[in-house]
Amino acid sequence: MLFAERLREHARARGDQLALISPRGELSYRDLAAAVTRCADRLHVLAPGPDAILGISLRDEHEHYIASLALFVAGLTQVTLPTSIIAAARGALAEKVGVTHILADDPAHAATELPLLRWPMNEAGVTATAASLARGAGALYITATGTTGDANTIVFSQQQIAQQAERHANYADERLLRLAPIEFNTSKRHRLYCFWQGGVNVFRPPGSLASVVAFIERHHVTCLDVSYMHLSELLALGRALPVDVKLRPGGAPVSAHMRRLLRERVSANLYVRYAATECGAVAMAGPSDHDDDASCGRPVDGVEVQIVDDARRVAPIGVSGQLRIRAPGMAEGYLANAEASRARFRDGWFYPGDLGYLRNDGSVVLQGRIDDVINLNGVKILPSEIERVLEEHPSVAGAAATALASPVHGEIPVAAVELARGAEITPAALLAFARERLAIKAPRKIIVVKALPRNEQGKILRRDVRLAFDRS
């Protein structure tokens, strides 16, 4: 089934039910179908041909959501060219993907000489027809940004997005609010998943997180999805979410220490998702799954996770190794990067580069990235071992460990820490705290930074951590 068919199905089966809540107003599924179909028909007029690829530069989430659905219904391929990035970066991404038209409400967002299609597409005389519901199978390009600053581009068909959406059956009963804008690739996909399942997509109003909490209460939001970047803000609010709201952070590992704080101060109804851009949701830890190992929970339905050694032999339960994943809707490779495709996609499996192990109950425990393991005179140290200990200190809000080259030891462990609000402690005191608990695995140097460097998903940028030591 394509998104055009799903739209018709929703309009027929749940036409009077809410589909969208935003500061702009509310739409039922019948209203949403009419708006999307009208825009899809107009797109056929302005950007004919199944080979057209449109770059979307629309900051308004309400409009961006309708535009994304309209492009799928029209059978046109799309990629987000975020208004939040510089014009040169938008232009480079457009060139890489092969964008043929720009869809924007402001010519300044076009960033290229490509034909500009002005939004909104509500010209008089354009009427909805069945034609746009019967054409093509446009795809979605997204960019996966790694912790080393590299960026791979992936193309997903509508069918693949639908297969990923099937793992989120709970969305059918949710009012989903995501704090990250729809211009973020992860947010867009979850908006599409929620649509697919017939849930309610809720878009946040402008303003502080405090106003968002009031918005959650007013509109009976049932699920709040946040990136790691929002967790400190939520903790600083000093205000718990309504008890029936699910808090679901994603995008980066959430430590046992952070989970304890969130459950105590924000919501006991905590869900932590492990996912990958290349395949979508992998595993989910629910309210009863949080422990000192920071378990990711069991793989979601339809997803297979194995732990393998360097020879790709399956490891026994409880033995650490490299994760590999197989799931419906998984990507098959990267655009214009054959080397990375060969390294990550092998024999029907995706290798994300994560280390971990499986427990007897099937739950997944992550231990870090393969590339981040520190080799101290042959002693292998996981950054997470150091980070977990440092984050146990009440003055530490977060920690990031990495390796520095050493002519004597090969590599030595070091760590940067971000202090809790109002806390004061010296690096020497933190070193003593770590040595007492980690012995030889303790960091040789600790620096205090104002904020740990993270990418847009909240993952630690260890290259930037190392640069901070070069400057210290």
Give the strand order of the largest sheet, numbering strands 1, 2, ... along the chain.
2-1-10-9-11-12
Count of individual helical segments: 13
Most strands sheet: 6 strands, mixed
What share of residues are in beta strands? 25-35%
CATH architecture tag of the domain at 3-195: 3-Layer(aba) Sandwich
CATH topology-level name of the domain at 3-195: Rossmann fold
SSE-based structural type: alpha/beta
CATH class of the domain at 3-195: Alpha Beta
Mean pLDDT: 91
Low-confidence segments:
123-135
- CATH homologous superfamily descriptor of the domain at 3-195: ANL, N-terminal domain
Distance from first to last alpha carbon: 56 Å
Q: Specify Rg, calculated over alpha carbons.
A: 23 Å
Number of strands: 26
Overall spatial form: globular
Q: What's the helical proportion of residues?
A: 25-40%
Word description of this protein:
It contains 13 helices and 26 strands. With 472 residues, the chain is an alpha/beta fold. Among the domains are: 3-195, ANL, N-terminal domain (Rossmann fold, 3-Layer(aba) Sandwich); 373-471, 2-Layer Sandwich (GMP Synthetase, Chain A, domain 3). The strands form seven sheets. Strands 2-1-10-9-11-12 form a six-stranded mixed β-sheet. Strands 6-5-3-4-7-8 form a six-stranded mixed β-sheet. Helix 2 packs across helix 3, helix 5 (158-165) packs across helix 6 (185-197) and helix 11 (383-390) packs across helix 12. The longest helix is centred in the N-terminal third of the chain and has 18 residues, at 29-46. The radius of gyration is 23 Å and the shape is globular. The termini are far apart.
